[in-house]
Design a protein that fits this description.
homodimer, mainly alpha, 5 helices, flat, DNA-binding, coiled coil (chains A, B), MerR_fam (chains A, B), DNA-binding transcription factor activity (chains A, B)
DNA sequence: GTTGACTTTTACGTAAACGTAAACTAAAAT
DNA sequence: ATTTTAGTTTACGTTTACGTAAAAGTCAAC
């Protein structure tokens, strides 16, 4: 398995190294270390970072993202744990679904506003 | 036309009065005032607040929301202005569309993870 | 084997988005 | 008429999510 350095990841995702270290500081990523203390990131760490950045784009706080990651990531072997995780997942899924619907409504509204503006522009061009 | 007081709006949207005043401070809402200085909010102000809060849920900054509002709100009569507004609107529409697609992908992933968890739970129940 | 790029920790700084408290005024209720 | 209750401004405080700088160690290249 090969590793990424922090600056490689930073470049790939166009974020600062400080940002990546901050996510670790908050417990969202846990890269291994070389003997001298340098961070090494696996494909899994990379995937986690990708997830975090996507979550951020959706407006989730790091705290929320942390919650999601740790629930889905940990191997929840016990039955109770599994049930709890499923319930949580269903809840989050519902939230995402609502968000999609909300966004689609916004899209509709924007489209109708745009149509209105285009009509106005046409009328202006008709006069001229 | 009847008005809302600041605390009425705050209650309706479950935000603090400070939050509403802050949005005004940043130029996002402009309620009229009574002679004594009290803020009075029209239906339009209410709609604007609703828009702001929706934008926030989507992870837009107040600055971005401000930009959108002022572009769509102002009566852009001039032809150049109209064209500019339409271009901006198309850009924002594209962003929203991408966001929706992004979210739908996330939804898919969550559903597949959930399906996997459910399967595991079934197996556990089969044993017991 | 030394220069230069990279990394580490520590720590202070900062912008955004409010929270909170004080000091005061106006409105509503009793 | 006088308590509550609600509203106003001013201003300092707080959290989140990093930016930035310093001081020191390390890796890669020439």
């Amino acid at each position: 398995m090969n590793y990424y350095t922090i600056s490689q990841l930073a470049e790939q995702f166009d974020v600062s190294t400080r940002t990546i270290r901050y996510y670790e500081e908050r417990g969202l990523i846990s890269p291994i270390r070389t003997e001298s203390g340098q961070r090494l990131y696996t494909k899994k760490d990379r995937a986690a970072l990708k997830l975090i950045l996507r979550g951020k784009r959706f407006g989730f706080s790091l705290e929320e993202i942390h919650e999601m990651i740790s629930l889905f990531d940990n191997d929840r072997t016990g039955r109770k744990q599994l049930e709890k995780t499923i319930a949580y997942g269903e809840q989050k899924l519902k939230e995402v679904t609502e968000r999609i619907e909300d966004l689609m409504q916004l899209k509709q509204e924007m489209e109708s506003i745009l149509a209105d503006f285009r009509e106005r522009l046409q009328k202006l061009e008709g006069i001229e």
